[in-house]
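User: My collaborator and I are trying to settle a disagreement about how two of our proteins should look. Neither of us wants to argue from intuition anymore, so we agreed to look at predicted structures for both before our next call. Could you fold the first one, then the second, and keep them clearly separated?

Assistant: That sounds like a sensible way to settle it. I'll keep them separate. The first protein:
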Amino acid sequence: MTLTAHIARILEGWSSAREAVHAGAPVPLRLCSRLLPVSDAGTPPVEDVPDELSELWALSAEVRLFEDIDFGQWGLALLPRAACATATRVLASQRRREHRDGDLVIGRFLGDSDLLLMRTDPRSADWGQVCIALPLDRRDDWYYPKVGLQAFIQLLSDAQGAKFWELASRRPPG
């Protein structure tokens, strides 16, 4: 199944706000998923990105998954290409010690300052994998689920938007 198909399945099941179940218990938030159309016209392409990221950007939308529609305190916003470039520049300037060549911010978690990064250095063993950058923690303390974007979205869907990676290792790959 393609990334677009995974997202379409989430949108179909979560287009109307409903209560999720995290760790076996109902969550007192109404979550939904949606697309917010944007224009990336005139945005220069980003080279050396995995096909699944190019597929995401072809949607020309900000993808909001499992968003808390009442308070805005939960969910994941997958960013369009122009917003990724801007957010990556901000990360590189504000977190110089933690930033690495090939880091690309592709999403932000709603309600906190965590970022979803994709590793896009084709020379690196973790090319195409995602990690969760924490706003105050050193890079060694970030979350590394050791999966690409498509698998990450599938795991997020299986968890109904819960932060499944918090149970995974925080050690960097390799």
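The second protein, kept apart from the first:
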Amino acid sequence: MHYYELLVGFDLSAFPSYYEPWGYTPLESLAFHVPTITQTLQDLNDYTFQINKHWPGNSVINRTDSNDKDVVNKITSTIKEYA
């Protein structure tokens, strides 16, 4: 199965990695109308996600060096909302 065939079958995608240099995968998910959870520590966030925080299906979580527990709680609550 190809990546994009798999992607359209997702109900939700989450990319909570501490740092992604470009963050293409969250952007690809949104392009395929897959609700996406991502965080503020990726380069494309400055260009796309921060400008379009209210893009339908886009959940941007503010991430710093000291808020791991808060990030986990926000990811969990967002997943519960979609479930």
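Some points you might bring to the call about the second protein. The chain has one domain: 3-82. The first helix runs from residue 3 to 7.
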